[in-house]
Amino acid sequence: MRCESCVENFGLCFMNIKFAWLVSGTRHLKSQIPSLRSVAYRCLTYSCPTTQQQSKIQNLKFQIDFVGIGASKSGTTWLGHALEEHPQLCMAEPKEVNYFNEIHAFRTSVKPNFHRGINWYRKFFNHCSSGQLKGEITNYYGIDPLAAARIKEHNPDSKILFCMRNPVDRIWSHYQFAKFFERKENRPIEQAVHEEPQYLRMSDYFQTLSLYHQHFSRDQIFLIWFEDIQNRPAELLHEVFLFLKVDPAFQPKKIHKKSNPARVSRSAALQKIIRHIKLALIGLGLSGLLKKIKMAGLGDFVMKMSSRTLPKTPIPGEIKNYILSEFHEDIIKLEKLTGKDLSHWRM
User: Fold this and answer.
1) pLDDT of 80-110, one tens digit each?
2) With DSSP H G I counted as helix, E B as strand and the rest as coil, what are the percentages for the chain, rounded to 5?
3) Whole-angstrom distance, CA of residue 261 vs CA of residue 258
4) Which residues pair with 224 in a beta bridge?
5) What is the pLDDT of residues 168-208, one digit of tens each?
6) Are 274 and 303 in contact (CB under 8 A)?
């Protein structure tokens, strides 16, 4: 199958899905999944050398310039959207490559990718132009010691972006995402937090900063607080752009748009197929097409089609108190390390 045929069939499948959705909502949605699965399989099993050779990145020694290391549910999707709009920056497509890490999300089929090598990694940046600063955001880099060392080895001058959020709110959001959107969490939160270490580890920001300070100087690490994303996004991005040494006056259009809000998945199967198609396009060297599809709003459409808004509910008081007790000392250490008043996190 030629690359053009793969792309054409890919687009046709999504048009069929959109039509089915507009006509009958989710009732006929499953009828389109086999078509998507077929296209994903064919795209994955056929190579496209001519397309792969059209990468705009011509330098033999490929390096990225900045890396976001998490934490999940702390504004990293918002940050990624804002950064990708800046003309002097180019973000990996899709956002989370999971290249440098060995640790992955629990109950997932994702496997380590570092052994695939740098030529595999650079495919996620084929859409980048010469002169743009390249970067990516993978939340599990923040809790993986190997990732920190590998990023340092890859580019000793890398700049690190680290988003942090009130541990109680982050863990509750993380749990709801795993339970209602990813459909991989079936335990009550009281049980899940005690049995799955990632819920707590992802919120241990002091440990993450201590890890990355072993490899990078403090002026290479920029700290992003979730409260600043909510209350002063324009000023925050001005500071981020200054840190990355690009035009700080640029203002993204999506600066005030809430990214990755809590949702309930309608079709876990559809989202799995969509992930396969993304990987297929990347494998064909078509990260640029994937970006255009997303920028055209198809990604938002698929999100609305395959999920619904999750009503807000408070975290159970008992588990909230447990989290507060677990992180009390770590928050104090984080305050001393960063000079930031985080007393509201201890309440």
Assistant:
1) 999 999 999 999 988 889 999 999 888 776 7
2) 55, 10, 35
3) 7
4) 163
5) 999 999 999 999 888 889 999 999 999 999 999 999 999 99
6) no
